[in-house]
Design a protein that fits this description.
By secondary structure, the chain is α/β, with parallel strands linked by helices. The protein has helices spanning 2-34, 39-51, 53-64, 75-84, 99-112, 128-140, 157-171, 186-190, 195-199, 245-248, 267-280, 319-329, 346-357, 373-380, 383-388, 422-427, 438-452, 460-463, 468-478, and strands spanning 117-125, 145-150, 175-181, 203-207, 222-223, 227-230, 234-238, 254-256, 259-263, 301-311, 334-338, 342-343, 361-367, 392-396, 399-401, 405-408, 412-416, 420-421, 428-436, 455-457.
Length: 484
Amino acid sequence: MQFDYITLDWESIWWSLMMAYGVLILCVIGIVISENRNPLKALGWIMALLLFPVGGIILYFIFGRSIRNVRMISRRNRRRLLKLENTLPLPKLDKGLSAENRQRIRLAYNIGGANLYTGNQIKIFNNGERHFEELFDDLRHARSYINLQFYIIANDSLGRRLRDILVERAQAGVKVRVIYDYIGSFDARRLDFFRRMKENGVEVHSFFRLSFPSHVNRVNWRNHRKVVVIDGNVGYIGGMNVADRYVRGTGRGKWRDTAARISGPGVAALQYNFAVDWKFMGQPLLCDPVSGIPDGVKDCMRGVTLQMLASGPNDRWGNMTLLFYKAISTARRRIWLQTPYFLPSDGLLKALESVSLAGVDVRVMMPMSADSKILTYASHSYIEECLLAGVKIYLYEAGMLHSKVMIVDDDFSTLGSTNFDFRSMEHNFEENVLLYSAEANEALTRGFEADASECKRLKLADWNRRSRATRALESLCRLLSPIL
């Protein structure tokens, strides 16, 4: 009798646990439905939860959670920062701007609070060596503060050069703050790369630090921004991380990327977005002064009108997706796009195809072989339908194309950290500069044309000769596009 009693007790516990788990699954499904996500994504998570009971719930809590509409900082602190940025209601736009650009400006302002700045100086870098040479020189001349954030800061010769400069400036009394991504800079963090900075007065913090089990769900949200603000006079933005490959390339060739140096009133927007990230990590609100005066360096474009648009998984609207969609759909003559990973949402893909079929010159440049085989196959899965729609596809053969640039017509362009893929549009914190300038457009066009000379332009007949095994791999990897 005693044995039967123990068996009955364990059976009761088992069924209680099963019922509790069932209730948990139903509650999570209710949450997924209530978030009003894309129906295909919602259905995918519901099927995963039902078909893979244990694995599905684990994957959901790691990769499926949403932070849409979560505030990075309080309204009160945001007002304080906006006051420092001298943000005003969007002024009446110059009639010299095209109707399409006026719409883009209003869109960026309404979805992301992107103020419009005129009278900026900008220099564009297509070469990592020149970019870091000028960045490091500006850092050495910092007198008040340095605010710096990168997705990757590597523990290599370039990373150590940066670290030594920041340490020297901190010891000289300059306020130095660094944000690095916990996942992107994991190797450097693991090797105590940042400890020397901290020991010498540099304030260093990782974005969305992971810890098990309380914060494991943060793994899917990464800070992919690459921004530097120096003394409120100079700012840098682009796609270049701090790693030797951006200067020396790899054994497979160049590591080609694009960045920009900015001076003038637009630096205030870079400072504002850095301050929001800094406060989001639980640090004091930054109230560093910004001069807004161009520094007059040589070999730069002057009088450039621009906006800074930040985006993240907490956006109400999906800032970068809407901006890219608007830029594509209102193009009149051309859209030239460079991206390391071409994994567009269905809406962006249809936008590219529709304008191409309407006669717009659409060119997409991506690596022949990216730094991930899965991403390469997934990106290539979109090529055939683009070619059928008349989109011109260029595969970069000289190494890794890591540049994130879009050129629209003759008077709009954007560069920054945003890849043309699901992760950048939906899961990463990104930042781009929007340039309303024929001169900047022309400079980026020259860079695109130079890169095109090192590309293979695809023809549909040639592309269709690839093997069935390759096609199968592309299709399989494409299924993973939303989470790559």
